[in-house]
Design a protein that fits this description.
5 strands, about 120 residues, Rossmann fold, 5 helices, single chain
């Protein structure tokens, strides 16, 4: 499975990439929403994980969901779930609150992948 991870913090990207790799998943990384969209245009991706704070205006986030409707998007934040409500209402697959355990991440990514296949 190919996962695209977008987070503005390199350390977070490296940690999450390591978690995904240990579970046998390939992980592409993006720092910004623009990089995320560029990768989605050029690479085959099964699931996207992205921070919500970088997508605050919401327009780019909705554009991503509308342009790539078959790719489930998991939003991630240290903020409470209510901060992710606009993203979830726009069509994000689910919300993962930081900090999280590797098992939580892997389980959610695998559920999102199964959801895509249905």
């Amino acid at each position: 499975m190919r996962v695209l991870l977008q987070d503005d913090e390199e350390t977070i990207r490296e940690i999450v990439t390591s978690m995904l790799a240990k579970a046998g998943h390939e992980c592409l990384q993006a720092e910004t929403p623009k990089e995320t969209l560029d990768i989605l245009r050029t690479e085959e991706v099964d699931v996207v994980i992205c921070g919500i704070m970088e997508w605050l205006d919401g327009k780019e986030f909705e554009r991503m969901l509308n342009t790539f409707p078959g790719v489930p998007v998991i939003v991630c934040s240290a903020s409470p779930r209510k901060a992710a409500l606009p993203a979830l209402q726009a069509g994000a697959y689910d919300f993962l609150q930081k900090p999280f355990e590797p098992e939580q991440l892997i389980s959610m990514v695998e559920r999102a992948f199964e959801h895509r296949r249905l």
